[in-house]
Backbone:
């Protein structure tokens, strides 16, 4: 089981259903949905539908996509098996695929994150879902196995988050790979597994890494972090930013977003970097580039965004002043080395003071404030993270330029159209793509510097090519 | 003769030397320099040396490079023939190459732009220069021809700005190409020529396009434009930016820099774009994306940065309000269509009111203010443009990361070093390169979407590989 | 009963104490506090103490003040009777006054806002408190009456929020006014009452309006709003600001703060103003100044900060597009005219969708999103508002410059000291005040343009003069 | 003679008129102007007229004022004698006064700053001017004396810059004070003189200090400095701001403007302050507040804006690193203590390297770059300073709100009008004034903390009251 299948353990606590029986053992019946599904409680469908509708109002790009397709079914023929968090936001994506003609079956990538009511609404809408909140490990794999297909329905595309579904198919139903047009993977873990396959010469289908897409890099990382870092901090700490001294570790897109937001609100921001190009950008953008050890005694907050590990060490924590806040906006929770801190628990006290807020207390009374257990402080509610991932999944199926164009009506933005003359002068088509290939290929490289062997490219005129 | 060899015609006017004889006809003698050179007046060398020293103080990255090399000669063996503007800034570059062990011969790429005193100082320092201000066309080619080499000295690298030198060698001394390690070209014109050769399969050596380097794209375009657009406008117009409505056409790096600077000073900025990704970035950065025709009646200024042609048309000029300012920060002067405006000169009056400022006057008295004859308003003085180009030439020879690291001491920026453990976790070397190849390859693509067939890559551990 | 005594009705709902008896009817006994008090439950004191300690960590200026006073008792002799919200933050203020030598008695200005545990902790610390959550109106006045004093203890200063305490004393114990050194009032309502007294010639003691202090105007309004508007919006709406079109009505300090924050996060901000000076500032700061009716069809959000009424009218709501957000950052909830909207409820539907979020739905399905029932969206939690008011109360007692100097250590800011020579050159004392009187007198003017007849001034060398 | 009458000595050098005779000795004849004047050369009038027209295009508020007055002559009856710099910008002001009905006579406040062609154009337009570039001291006073009036024309208002005219009238024609409606003074020196008179009880007429007007404080100081500091630095130094470490001494309006602009362009800005309120504002705005001595070794630039003296001392200069730039944006040139630096000239070398740029060179080769001889670096050309002063003079005659409203059309800004209901609610008139008196009285206080005894207030409905 991959990490993503267990990492929301805490969130299950808020689920207070009394029904202790496993959905596997119950009769699954829907008045008008598929006969082939397994969820907690079909009677919650109406509530789930409202949640999906509310989510849809906040995901206008997908709604625009449905409109733009009109009655046409550009995805007719696509058979998608998916394994992701099952939330209202994912449901908007799934139903968009269906609206465009795809057939979908879905399982959960995480035993705790399924919104049962949303699953019920999807089933009622005719989609075979196998998922409920609080699956056991055995149930988790049972759901995935049943989701993969039936004798009469075999998938030609995988949407995966964590790699469990792909791995299951690879191992148990390798023959399905013959029909696959591609695999889309969101998580770093999953991408790493695909890369191992690819390196071993056993990845016979195109695969895409959502995480490194242009849209993800340039929009989600930069703009989303810019907007969410302030909220994440405010919600957990009540800090006022004006005049506070903050170190941001790492000046990639996430770091750039954090720095811009904090500076805009009046914080004094320092940057640490290992890469001279990023360091120079930080300088030019007006940030002092220093080593953490040089400034650590004076700061009010440190935010890690490097993607690396052990960026903040126990020795740094020892030097921080009372009340210093430590949090992480990077991918992994390993950026802050808590192992050494935990180990010496006889020396330090660890107090959970509020949801998402812990204090580590030194013998002299000094308190360091840890936010979100140094997991990503991306947002205060999981919903928004889900929504974000969902946006990324879109990217896999459509070209970045097409996705961007879907968002423009939200901003009432009016694109200028090239004249024939101008297009010829620029050596490009009037309707794009406007970026050269090398720019768009950024999409598909793996993080940690590796590249998948199989890369697909798309163009605006046929954004649906991947599935067709 | 390429465009760059004539485009500074005006600047010659300030040269008031009385000596009308051609340097070709004079005895060229230097007490301690080479015997092989041709310049205007060796006696100006001391004055030129001061100019070079002053320029050096403002180019700390090159000075750092000399220091960092210590006594070593990493460029020993390199024989560079160059053809660029000959200014104090270029001289700092040339002498850095020499300090690192290279041998250099140099000619001017422009008949008017040579600073005679600087040429004299270079000669006195032992470099064979063939250039003076006010060359005739015949003299221009004579200088290039004499610069190429001698029987005992043949170049193994070309640094060209405009392509005239490369073309001359290609046609007259094709055998030299066998020894060439590479061609570095700065101008769009020159790159286009190389591309034609490459397409025809006749470019047998590696060639690089400085103009699309990462450093150029990410630093010069973005940051330089951000800093210089305000100055360019202030120096020509006395406008106050606060509250002024400005349209920036194009949201590439140049446009992003202009928009950021203008917004920071309180202007209300609108953006026009053809590319949905750039348009979406403009939205997220807080700019209204509109078509020029929608807003043209209300604006105080329009700045073109598209790289395309005919972005501002006569019909737009007709609709602008009295006093509207029109200028160009893009590569070419074709962004604003003045042809149709000029043609109807019986209808419109054209008045040159100040250096770099023209008024076009409509019959009803309306005046449109054209800056810099709609050439690039990059900076008010040519020196800075030269300096900029010079910085770019560096990029061709060293890796971007190496160049960036040379700049960091200027900002007293302290780079963090990866631990062995962290480097391993990231899958990269402790000392870089930190960016994947696809990122750095952006360097070498041609503008207008074409790609050179021959591309070199470098790494920090051997930044001098190109020449060795 | 003033408005402030009832306006938190909703907040009582979260109080789930089972004990239904009135504290008035119970024996009030504290092991070591005063014998003279009336609260809900003394046994909650330890929990309340923890709350006060946590609040104290976030109010460093008051903590600095205690330290700076050292063991001295500059407020010895001061007898303060207070009537405010009783929260952990207020408790930090009260205990600071006590630490500096003052004697205090306190009642609640609101029948619902008392934190019972905090009241218990204050009593245990020796302060006579008469307050509990959920007082009846009769109990409210009973508490105030018992708080005023005893035969042996008579106040010489009033700290009031809403004017109920002052009014009660004025009517029932007018003889106490002889001993009063001053009245400090926070609320607009209370200030208005004082003004009426003053105009009628019946206000015989100095009075101060906290609300118009320099610190309040320049720090709380500007900086606090700048930081809190984003959070308030994020917490209620999940909106991303980048590219959103927002109208801010009013460009006073609150409006300036909102505009700066929204612009910094990438929103496109328009301003409406009635005052040409503020309008011109908005222009210079880069905001289009328009009338609401001109832009209302296109915007994503409108925020009112005028202090005026009926700024957003039903006719504006009718024209807004689906999903437009309407909220208020100004003092009063009358900025948005909901009366006419409510009245026609047969036509419009009103749906409460989340805490602090209502939808008004038009027959065609259009939804307008109202936040916080158009009360002030200052912050998502009441605590921060309390804290803010508490900070303001400080201002009444100490000079603005002294208060500012207390905050500087928080920012590790190092003040430069004038030399004797420089002080003489500037014509001021070395240790301030640095601002001329006219600047500081801004403190004491009433809002709505009236001025109190009795105004006090302070200086840094004796910040405690008011109470002594 | 006041300081302003000699402080532009350098500027006379650019005047290369051959005519050495004094205008006093020549026949002064104008075909259609007044008979009563004395200038250099009436034949330059046409050229001067063009200069005035160009200046007028950049001073739209005054042009709007002329339009708004329509054919009416609100200033009929006003007889203004003025003594200011005589430039194209001043001419626009003078001719506006005339257009509104005033009669004017004018002299120069500086022996070198008169633009002879402009003076000629004014004479041709019917205004009695007594001024030329390069007056001797004797001629200076002769001009003022002849300007004051004639037997049939006596002034009822003085517009002065430096106090020389007021002083002359006070001493030689004290009886004129009986008819005076007021004195408007721009310079600190002149205001100080008035204050001495006022303190001695001998100032019998209202007087106004332009320098402390709301418009000057809030617009000119803040916004003008924000825009001009960047240009001033760019024009003299070619510095790029990104990443540069800058200390701004003083965080008043000028300092705030400088800090905002530099931060916006990517500089890292530190602030020094003596006043805790301003220091706290700097903190909240995101600037580190330090003492100059703490950071002086590391900075790239220091800018003084305190209004105080000896802010940068020799000991600071000694510690600065090579190439550090020192300049002044404050009122006086005494902010940087050059006396001690000059005195030890045997030790330090002083080299004038470019207009407005000097280098001070230490024995070890370290160079400190002094800009504008540490006079105000407000703008690179004097014209803009003149324009600025001119804008301020307007303020004296009209209310700030009226002046602001004249500027709004420039920004196409649309003011919202209060409804009757709203005006009543706010307790103000529908058409203003919108600010309480205490706000507007800021106008008239003296700098250095003194207050004039005679203060006038205006209102929008009768902006011309002062002169009528």
Residues:
């Amino acid at each position: 089981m991959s990490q993503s299948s267990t990492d929301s353990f805490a969130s299950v606590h808020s689920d207070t259903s009394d029904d202790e029986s496993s959905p596997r053992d119950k009769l699954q019946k829907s008045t008008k949905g598929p006969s082939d599904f397994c969820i907690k409680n079909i009677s919650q469908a109406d509530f789930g539908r409202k949640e999906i509708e509310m989510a849809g109002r906040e995901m206008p790009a997908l709604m625009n996509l449905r409109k733009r397709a009109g009655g046409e079914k550009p995805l007719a023929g696509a058979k998608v098996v998916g394994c992701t968090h099952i939330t209202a936001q994912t449901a908007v994506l799934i139903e968009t695929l269906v609206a465009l003609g795809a057939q979908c079956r879905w399982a959960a990538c995480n035993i705790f994150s399924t919104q049962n009511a949303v699953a019920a609404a999807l089933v009622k809408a005719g989609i075979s879902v196998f998922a409920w909140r609080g699956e056991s490990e055995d149930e988790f794999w049972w759901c995935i196995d049943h989701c993969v297909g039936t004798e009469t329905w075999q998938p030609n595309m995988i949407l995966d988050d964590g790699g469990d579904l792909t791995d299951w198919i690879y191992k148990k139903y390798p023959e399905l790979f013959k029909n696959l047009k591609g695999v889309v993977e969101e998580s770093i873990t999953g991408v790493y597994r695909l890369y191992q396959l690819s390196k071993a010469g056993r990845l016979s289908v195109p695969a895409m890494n959502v995480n490194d897409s242009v849209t993800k890099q340039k929009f989600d990382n930069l703009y989303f972090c810019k907007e969410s870092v302030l909220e994440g901090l405010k919600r957990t700490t009540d800090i006022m930013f004006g005049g506070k001294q903050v170190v941001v570790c790492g000046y990639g897109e996430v770091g750039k977003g954090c720095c811009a937001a904090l500076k805009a609100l009046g914080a004094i921001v320092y940057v640490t970097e290992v890469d001279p190009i990023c360091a120079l950008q930080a300088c030019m953008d007006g940030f002092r580039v220093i080593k953490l050890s040089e400034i650590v005694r004076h700061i009010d907050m440190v935010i890690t965004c490097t993607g690396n590990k052990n960026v903040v060490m126990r020795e740094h924590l020892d030097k921080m002043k009372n009340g210093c806040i430590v949090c992480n906006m990077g991918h992994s929770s390993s950026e802050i080395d808590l192992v050494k801190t935990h180990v010496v628990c006889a020396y330090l006290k660890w107090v959970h003071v509020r949801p998402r807020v812990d204090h580590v207390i030194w013998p002299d009374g000094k308190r360091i404030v840890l936010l979100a257990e140094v997991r990503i402080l991306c947002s205060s509610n999981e919903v928004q993270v889900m929504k974000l991932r969902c946006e990324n999944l879109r990217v896999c199926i459509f070209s970045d330029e097409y996705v961007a164009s879907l968002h423009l009506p939200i901003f009432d933005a009016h694109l200028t159209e090239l004249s024939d003359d101008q297009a010829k002068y620029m050596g490009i088509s009037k309707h794009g793509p406007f970026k050269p290939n090398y720019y768009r290929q950024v999409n598909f490289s793996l993080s940690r510097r590796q590249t998948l062997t199989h890369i697909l490219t798309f163009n605006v005129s046929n954004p649906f090519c991947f599935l067709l």
Observations:
- The two ends of chain D are 31 Å apart (CA to CA).
- The longest helix of chain D spans residues 214-237.
- Confidence is low (pLDDT under 50) at residues 7-16, 379-396, 437-468 of chain D.
